[in-house]
Write a structure and sequence with these properties.
The chain has 622 residues and is mainly alpha-helical. The chain is 68% helix and 0% strand. It has three domains: 406 residues, no CATH class; 95 residues, Alpha Horseshoe (Serine Threonine Protein Phosphatase 5, Tetratricopeptide repeat), CATH 1.25.40.10; 55 residues, no CATH class. It contains 30 helices and no strands.
Length: 622
């Protein structure tokens, strides 16, 4: 207790000193204090992250969260490594962490959000460490930015944790894949820098270890070896102590990790859900060139959002304009602008390495998901989670740019770079923090989130369908009594079907809506449409429940059995079968399905109810 009191007093005293320095505008004093107190920097990073994500901890599951977490049998036992591996081998580490969450927190979202936020805080600390290591290299020794390296590194980390573009990777639970992959990516970069600075071999071993871990978290980390080789050539090529043989060995060892992702699929019998049908196409038949032309505009959109993150959208789905040629949607203009940015980075490799690295970092970070490897969704903001660090490097590098000197005197891009830096820091952190709080407020309610999506992507059938699903959930919570919610849900489902008739989820959930509203014939009609498009246990449940409500137990039984054939561990189908056989007084079959239900069920209230029914069975059915 005394130790805690002592530490609290020390922290209070440090903050007091810092406040006095701020009042005196003693920038050098603040830099010295921060350099001595790294723990203070870490605390500030954590504090800001907790502040801007304080209203995110009750944000509900949405979209892929259900398939990856809520309804995912594979993650229910964290020690069942085979089940996790078979579900998604190339993201084994991600799903292992989700499995631990599930084991501890079941489907209560708070625990998942806490872990996601902790990962985000740790990544902010890693950005600080990476920036401080970079600015400590000899290329920056005589630069003004190096004099204030701790402050610049701290600001980099603070912007990283409070920028609203990160919300999609932190608050959208399953996109832990982006933030956790970034953790291992940043660890690999940090330990590579430590290895090249100290020449201690165990740092290189750690680099390889975290590279491998990254590749088993998300596939876009296949770029790590290339990022590290770039850093090698930008900062260590002329260190005067590394032979070409050693450098070649380092590059060789790094490149040995590249085949891990494809090799897992080919030789270790792994499975990647993002690649079920076509090699290097993520669940889409989109032409590679069409995807590339579209990404040219998407990347410019991303860049605009990094500077001014206003008008963010959680999910464009199929409402983002697709370019089928360079001329369509002015993709050729985007190509010209991006090429100019790339050329600018190359021209600055010698004059302003931080600016150059920042641009290249950004493009390397996006190279897998925003190039020729076509992915079902052309736009998602969580893809910017790791590239944001490159954007921050670029901006801070430009503020402290001194490449315009004549060799005898320094001439900066801005007349007073330190003043610009302070003003930028204050404005950016306040602006971005406010927007992040606002984004988390939107995410914290399903109807609010998807209403925002529908407003920004009115032609997305998925947006209308998910919004309708949120209204449906609220309608069900009211005991199917609020007709306003019924009408809102029906309107959105019908709009989704109008936009894309083949949206089987919309048909299936519309059937459930009609079932709750006791419109059984309409429920049967929509359920059959959903089954014809894509059979699912949900559609069969709705179909069987409607027949059962109409008193047609035989047809209900057929529907439930069809659902059982699709998924023999689906608890609501097992309960449906147990209940239906019970009503038919077929106690033997009823007992079988009830016992199967108890085997897989996770909800105790239902368990007690079924146990009572089983106890009421005649003894001869045991």
């Amino acid at each position: 207790m005394q130790v805690m009191i002592s530490r609290f007093r020390t922290m209070t005293s440090t903050f007091g000193k810092m406040t006095e320095m701020v009042k005196r505008r003693d920038i050098e004093g603040i830099e010295m204090l921060l350099a001595e107190k790294k723990a203070l920097c870490f605390g500030m990073i954590a504090l800001l992250a907790l502040l801007v994500y304080s209203n995110s901890f009750t944000a509900p599951f949405t979209l892929d969260d259900f398939g990856s977490i809520v309804n995912n049998y594979s993650i229910r036992n964290p020690l069942d490594f085979k089940a996790i591996w078979d579900f998604y081998s190339n993201r084994f580490i991600l799903y292992f962490t989700l499995s631990i969450n599930y084991f501890i927190h079941d489907t209560h979202v708070v625990g998942y959000h806490i872990v996601n936020t902790l990962i985000h805080i740790f990544n902010g600390i890693l950005v600080f460490l990476v920036m401080r290591s970079l600015l400590g290299l000899k290329q920056f020794q005589d630069k003004l930015i190096s004099k204030y390296s701790t402050m610049v590194s701290l600001v980099s980390a603070l912007i990283f944790v409070c920028h609203p573009i990160q919300v999609n990777a932190v608050t959208y639970i399953v996109q832990r894949t982006a933030s956790l992959a970034a953790t291992f990516y940043l660890l690999a970069v940090y330990f590579y820098l430590r290895f090249r600075i100290s020449d201690k071999a165990y740092y290189f071993v750690l680099t390889l270890l975290f590279t491998v871990m990254a590749m088993y978290t998300k596939e876009n980390t296949i770029t790590i070896p290339f990022m590290l080789i770039l850093i090698e050539f930008m900062f260590f090529l002329k260190d005067g102590k590394t032979s070409w043989l050693k450098r070649a060995f380092i590059a060789f060892m790094l490149l040995l990790t590249v085949p891990i992702i494809p090799g897992t699929l080919l030789f270790l019998k792994g499975y990647s859900q993002s690649d079920p049908d076509v090699t290097f196409k993520a669940s889409t038949s989109m032409n590679r060139m069409h995807y590339f032309y579209t990404q040219l505009n998407v990347i410019l959109h991303y860049i605009r959002l990094l500077f001014v993150p206003i008008g963010q959208n959680f999910d464009y789905s199929d409402d983002y304009p697709i370019s089928r040629s360079l001329l369509e949607n002015n993709s050729y203009i985007s190509l010209i602008i991006l090429c100019m940015i790339g050329i600018f980075s190359l021209l600055n490799i010698k004059r302003n390495k931080l600016v150059s690295l920042g641009i290249l970092w950004f493009f390397i970070g996006l190279s897998v998901e925003s190039s020729f490897i076509s992915i079902k969704d052309v736009y998602f903001e969580h893809r910017l989670y790791f590239p944001l660090a490159g954007f921050i490097m670029f901006v801070l590098g430009m503020i402290f740019d001194e490449s315009r000197g004549d060799g005898t005197s320094k001439r900066y891009l801005f007349k007073k770079p330190l003043k610009v830096f302070v003003i930028f820091t204050c404005v950016a952190i306040l602006f971005y923090s406010g927007l992040t709080l606002r984004r988390n407020y939107i995410y914290s309610d399903g109807i609010r989130l998807w209403s925002d999506v529908v407003k920004k992507a009115p032609n997305s059938d998925r947006a209308h369908s998910v919004l309708a699903g949120e209204y449906l959930n609220k309608y069900e919570e009211t005991g199917a009594t609020d007709q306003e919610l019924f009408l809102l849900a029906e309107k959105e489902f019908l709009k989704a079907i109008e936009l894309r008739y083949s949206n089987s989820t919309a048909h299936c959930n519309l059937a459930k809506l009609y079932l709750l509203n006791k419109q059984y014939d309409r429920c049967i009609e929509e359920a059959r449409k959903a089954i014809n498009l894509q059979p699912s246990v949900y559609a069969y449940h709705n179909l069987g429940s409607a027949y059962k409500a109409k008193g047609n137990l035989n047809e209900a039984l057929k529907a439930f059995k069809a659902g059982y054939e699709l998924d023999n561990r689906c608890t609501f189908i097992l309960r449906d079968l147990g209940d239906t056989y019970y009503e038919l007084k077929d106690y033997e079959n009823s007992r079988f399905y009830y016992e199967e239900f108890l085997k897989y069920n996770i909800y105790r209230n239902s368990e007690e109810e079924v146990q009572k029914i089983l106890e009421s069975f005649p003894d001869n059915t045991k």
